[in-house]
Amino acid sequence: MRFESVEAAFHRNLDSGEDLGASFCVTVEGETVVDLWGGWRDAERTRPWAADTIVNVFSVTKTMTALTALLLADRGDLDFDAPVARYWPEFAAEGKDLIKVSHLMSHSAGLPEWTAPIDAADLYDWDKVTTLLARQAPLWEPGTEIGYHSMTQGYLVGEVVRRITGRSIGTVFRQEIAEPLGADFQIGLPASEDARVADLIPPPPGGPAVMIDVADTRTRAWRGAENPSVGGTGNARSIARIHAILANGGMTQGKRFLSEAGCRKALEVQAQGRDRILGMTMRWGLGFAVSGGAMSFPNPGTIFWGGYGGALAIIDMDARTTMAYAMNKMGSTATGDLRGLGLAMAAWEALGVI
Question: For the chain, how big is the Rg over CA atoms in Å?
Answer without folding.
Answer: 19
